[in-house]
Design goal:
This protein is α/β, with parallel strands linked by helices and 163 residues long. It has 2 domains: 62 residues, no CATH class; 67 residues, no CATH class. 29% of the residues lie in helices and 26% in strands. It is built from 6 helices and 8 strands. The strands form 3 sheets. The protein has a 4-stranded mixed β-sheet. Helix 1 crosses helix 6. 16% of the residues are buried. The mean pLDDT is 88.
Length: 163
Amino acid sequence: MLDRGRPPRWLPVYLAQTFTLCLQETLLRDRANAALPGPFLLTEAELALWDWAEIEMIRPLRVVDLRGTALTRSRVPTDVVGATDQRLARAWAAAFHRHPAGFDGIVFPSRFRSGDNLALFHERIAGALRVAARRRVLNSPVELGRTCAVLDLAIVARPADHK
């Protein structure tokens, strides 16, 4: 996590369960909330900036589980995993990072309710994960086509001129 004016306490590694969820979490997040009716427009230039990877686990990870009933049992406020404002989530992530159990990260449900995410503490996952495959988002026509259909996305050459 990066703090303005201070050295980082840790570097996060974020992973999502599916290609579609990765695009939702990375590119759409809250932008889609204020979008006009019709397909949500993404530019080729924006998509060209991104790669995606399939990750394999080499060793088990010790993660705080904030999904479903585990969230309720933990007594962590639901806004930690569901609020638009992420300040509370960052504060709890800092607490989990400092916890004496030495957690590797946190597993939590996506706000989109379409899968799970992992927020991992970079310095604790050395040797735990391996990149099984990596591709450019624009070089993934099957995954990108499926995601465009499911999320009602349209890829355009350049942003529309709004006059």
